[in-house]
Amino acid sequence: MISPKPMDPKTGFHCFKTSAYKLHYYETLSCIKFIVLTDPNTPDLREELKKIYSSIFVEYVIKNPLYQPNTVVKSEMFINQLNQHIKQLTWYL
């Protein structure tokens, strides 16, 4: 079960690995959750998810005056920047 409140980053839930996939989880202090499914051999992405939040999500979503919390993110700039960023990572196939 995932807690509805952010956890201590040193002891909280970061990832879960099965034989088929690895689930990576990051929750911000404002309760925004990032979840990524990868190959089971991918290293922990917690720091990468923090970077995505601070440098992409905040810049292209949170700072957008048209953004409505608890709605689907439809910003093309955010989606494009996120895709571009992820495709540059070593674990991306």
From TrEMBL:
The keyword Transport applies. It is found in: Endoplasmic reticulum; Golgi apparatus, cis-Golgi network. InterPro entries: Longin-like_dom_sf, TRAPPC. Pfam families: Sybindin. GO terms for biological process: endoplasmic reticulum to Golgi vesicle-mediated transport. GO terms for cellular component: endoplasmic reticulum; Golgi apparatus; TRAPP complex. Its main location: endoplasmic reticulum. Keywords: Endoplasmic reticulum, ER-Golgi transport, Golgi apparatus, Transport. The keyword Endoplasmic reticulum applies. It comes from the Eukaryota. Part of the multisubunit transport protein particle (TRAPP) complex. Belongs to the TRAPP small subunits family. BET5 subfamily. This is Trafficking protein particle complex subunit. It comes from Tieghemostelium lacteum (Slime mold).
